[in-house]
Structures are given as C-alpha cells and as structure tokens.
Amino acid sequence: MELLFAIIAGVLFAAGLYLMLRRSILKLVMGLVLIGHSANITIFTAGGLTRARSAIIAPDATTLPAGSADPLPQALILTAIVISFGVLAFAIVLVSRAWQEVGNDDTDQFAETDR
Amino acid sequence: MSLLVLLPVLIPLCVAALSMVAWRSLVLQRVLGTLGSVALLVSAVALLLHVDREGILALQMGSWPAPFGITFVADRMGAIMTVLAGATGVATFLYSPASVDERRQRLFYYPLLSVLLAGVCGAFLTGDIFNLYVWFEVLLMSSFVLLALGGERPQLEGAIKYVTLNLISSVLFLIAVGILYGAVGTLNMADLALKVAQAEDKGVITAVSVLFMAAFGIKSAAFPLFFWLPSSYHTPPFAVSAIFAGLLTKVGVYALIRVFTTIFTQDTAYTHTILLIGAGLTMVTGVLGAAAQFEFRRVLSFHIVSQIGYMIMGLALYTPLALAGAVFYIMHHIIVKANLFFIAGLAHRIRGTSSLKRAGAVSVYRVSPLTCIIFLVAAMSLAGLPPLSGFFAKLILVRAGLEAESYTIVGVAIVVGLLTLFSMTKIWAEAFWKSPGEAPGESTGGEPAGREHAERTEEPECDSALAGPPTAMMYAVCGGLAVVTVLVGVFAGPVFGLAERTAAELLNNGAYIRAVLGENP
C-alpha cells in the first residue's frame, strides 16, 4: 500500500513539475495544484498507513487506546489544504490579471523584469 | 511574564484587525499602524532584555504540555530577529505615505503590512516546525498581495515568479515536515532535537535535512535558487521593496540557522559542507550579477543575494565565532539593506528616475548633499569600511574563517567585499554625483553601437513610484537608520557580546530543550 501511495505522490509531483515547465501561465497554476496534492499524499503516507481504529478517546479514558491511527498527519494535511486553497485562489486571480495586462499566456512574454 | 513571548505576534495581528475596521480613514490606519509597530518594537526590546538576562522563555499554547501543544519560544536569536523586525516595521510605516500612492493605500495596504509583521515575528518565535510553515504562509500571503498591489505590468510579472517559486519552496518544506514526522514522530523543535540525535537511521534524517536546506534556500535566495529575487524586488513601491529586502529573505536565513543548529547536527561534515559551498557561490554570483545591472534597486537586489552568502558562511563554518559573525551580519544587514532601498526611493524622488544609465533631472550631489551623506554611510557600511557596522560583521566572519582554516571561503568573502565597493561607487557616481548635462552611458565606455544596444535594453521605468520632491519624513527615516548603522559600528563591542552569547546558545541546544520540555525530558 505504501508503495502505491509513494508512486501516486511521485507521479503527481512529476506531472505538476512538467506542467510548470510548459510555457503557459495557466498550466503553471495547474502544476502548483498537482504539486500541492502530492505534498499532502506524501505527509499522509509518511505518517504511516494502517488499518487501525479511528482516533477517538473513550469517555472514561484519558489516552488513545493502543492500535489507534495517528490523527496528527490528517490535521497537518487539513491545515495544508486550507492554506493551499487560499493561496491558489490568489494565484488564479494573479494569473488572470497578468493575462489581461500582458495579453498573452506565454511565459516568455513575462520576461520584461528579468533584463 | 511568559506572555511577553506572544506580544510581538499579537500586537500586529490586533493592529491589522483594527486598521481593517478603520478602512474609511487612511490617517487613522497610518496612526494605528505606526503606533502598533512602535509597540511591537518596544515589546520585542523588552523580550530581548528579558531573554538575555533570565534565559530562554517558553510558552505552551492552551497549557498543553510540550511536545503535544504548540510552543512559542524566545531565545536570544528569535528575540534579536523580532527587534529587527520591529525596527524595520516602524521605518516602513513612517516612510509609506511618501512612497505608496493613495490608490494602493486604499487597497488595505496598512493592514497587510501589519499582517506581514505578525507573520515574520511568528516565524521567529515559534517552537514548532509545522507552525513555522503556517507562519511562513501568513507572511508569504501578505507579501504576495503587497507585491502585486496596484497591478502594473512589471509588478504582475515579478509577482508571478515570486509567487511560483515561493509556493514550490513551501511545498518542499511541507514534504520535508511530513517525512520528518514519519521518521521521528514529533514536530516540536526541542523534541525533534532530542529525537533526531537518538534516531537510528541517520540516512533518512540527513536526506530530510537537505530537503529543508532546499526549501529554506529558495526562501533565503541562496545560490542556485535566488532567481525570483532580482526579478521581483524592484517592481513594487519603494517602501514595500525595503521591508521585503530587510526582512523576508532573512526569515529564510533564520530558519536555516534554526534547523541546522538546533535540530540537524547529526552529520555536519556533510550538510554544513554543502552550505559552505552554497555560501561561496551565493556571494560570487550575487555580486557579479550586481556588477552587470544598471538599475538602482536591481543592483541592490543582487547585493541581497551576495550578502545572504555571508550569513550562510557563518552558519556553515559552525564555530562559535562564525555563528556570532552570522548573527552580527544579520543585525547589520537588515538595517542597512532596508535603508538603502529607502534611499533609492529618496533618490528616485529627486532625480525622477532609478536608472543608472539615464541622467536624472538634477544632480543629487548639488541639490541635496544630505541624501548623499546618508547614502555614503549606508553604502560604505554595506561594502564593509571601518568604522561602520559592515566592517565588524565581515571582520568577525573572516577571522572565524581563518581560525577554521577555510582559506578559500575567506578569499571569496574578501574579494566579494571589494566588488561590493565597486557596485556602490558605481551607484554613487551615476546616481548621486553625475550632473544631468553629461551624456548617459559615458562612463560605461564603449563605441556608439554599444550605446545603442544599451538604450534598447533599457529597463522599463518603475511607475509604481510617486513623483515630487521628497518629504521631510523620508529624510528622517533614512537618516535615522543611517545613525543606527553608525551606532552599531561605534558600539560594536556590546553588540558583538550579544552575538557571541546568541551563538553559544545556538550551538548548545540543551538550554533550549530544557526550557521547552522541562528539566528532565
């Protein structure tokens, strides 16, 4: 199972990177989306994939019962998803504004500030 | 008393909320922001004094015992950085009305600045590595908006590169955090320091530490990951450039210092050698890039890159003296670099252009000798001439390099210092000294064909700057920061003492661990 998830994360990262290297600002944003997902799956996998019980503390106990899943990676992913959602919303608006201003989707037209 | 740790984060956040409520009145926002940043500076100084006297201060959020809750920790390093953030914040708030037009100010400029300061201070004071990621995102988000605010073409072009590369760096950071958690099962930095030292599989730890190096390397604009910086920092209004130049890359450097002194010390022969090579190349490429530029802020941007190399050199040598040098260098650099960008705005107001090839409307040297003196102080400090702060910063690093017998890096550092002086004299001659009568490009030499080429590739003029004669406040801010530079040089002894204590604390993470996890972790 770990192997499958690792491959998925790798493929997503590679696909995202490939899209970002294309000469289109729209594909650039798409690439960012995929790379973000890849990071989330990596955390999920690295935190340990188990068929354990869900992490609920019984009313009369103070600690998690043995053999429960680790809830922390999921909390991390949740935070990361929320942040990347906000950032992506901004990136999409930025790209659309830049497209209006430059009138082109080609990243080579965005080199004015590099000279 | 431990609430003091949280004040530098809480104050700017509250100020941001209040200034958003006061969205109708720019004056009110300005007053709130300025008072807030002064309060931030005061609380940060109080924090530094307390930490320096009484030792590391830790605060557990919601009283969850570490390592389960999120911890805020102020050691000397974090406290010093917060003080510098406060000082830059005050200067930026005072300078902004003269540099940012009213349309931009109306687009929630002041609240965004406050959020940026909160994010920066949060990153300096957090003791949890995932929380560091969150603070990074807070400061990045507001910096994205500040950079693109106004929506002019150069700004949007610069913002796309800045946003993309910083997001990639965040993703790398996130992946590294995930794998590290998988390997050792904790996120609290003090706990990480313990667990990493005990970890059996050193290979995974070293691999993760290199991932952190790449992520923070992008953020601190180290070689070869610096390209986003010189293509974006010259596009927004001068006040925004100045706070970015002063603070943002230094957050990356701080993160590098934090993880490579407190946490990842398991294989310094490997990781710190990479850092050392990176530091040397960063210095050289930055300074050579600057030599090829003819726009005020682009020259300065490349110099940020080259100076980052000095700070990483101090970290990479990994001796008490070298780390003290890195800390001293950061203190010197934040003040001087922000000041140079403020001065660039001042000179732009006087000359009407930031290009070094085009002759300005007037000779700054004739019109405003004061501007020239302020620039000379900052520029000579950057180049490292005694008795200014930059001299002592470089002296400590060179001395540390000689003691560690790394003669190559010492040679590089000295040559780069000389080339910095060359760049500064170029700006001095072209922007401050030359009178408008002289033909542009004359001093760059070359035949007519060369000049034609030069004119065709002229950078687009920055149109995010305001026109008109400079205000008294601009002089006050630039002059004030120049005085601070001189004072750091004059009182180099006590400042170096503080840097030495900071370095000792960084190199011995026992006190940090005890402060966070209690006496018997």
What does it look like?
- The complex is a heterodimer of chains A (115) and B (521).
- Chain A has helices at 2-21, 25-46, 72-102.
- Chain A is mainly alpha-helical and 115 residues long.
- Chain A has one domain (2-49, 71-105): Helix Hairpins, CATH 1.10.287.
- In chain A, helix 1 (2-21) runs antiparallel to helix 2 and helix 2 packs antiparallel against helix 3 (72-102).
- Chain A contains three helices and no strands.
- The model of chain A has no long low-confidence stretch (mean pLDDT 88).
- Chain B is 74% helix and 2% strand.
- Chain B has 21 helices and two strands.
- Chain B has helices at 7-21, 26-54, 76-99, 102-106, 109-125, 129-148, 153-184, 189-198, 202-219, 238-263, 268-291, 296-317, 320-351, 364-367, 369-383, 389-403, 407-433, 448-456, 472-490, 492-507, 510-517, and strands at 57-60, 71-74.
- Chain B has a two-stranded antiparallel sheet.
- The model of chain B is unreliable at 439-460 (pLDDT under 50).
- Classes of the chains: A mainly alpha (115), B mainly alpha (521).
- Chains A and B meet through helix 2 and helix 3 of A and helix 6 and helix 7 of B.
Helix and strand content put the structural class of chain B at: mainly alpha
Distance between the termini of chain A: 49 Å
> What is the domain total for the residues of chain A?
1
Write down the overall geometry of chain B.
globular
Task: Tag the structure with descriptive keywords.
heterodimer; A: 115 residues; mainly alpha; 3 helices; elongated; B: 521 residues; 21 helices; globular
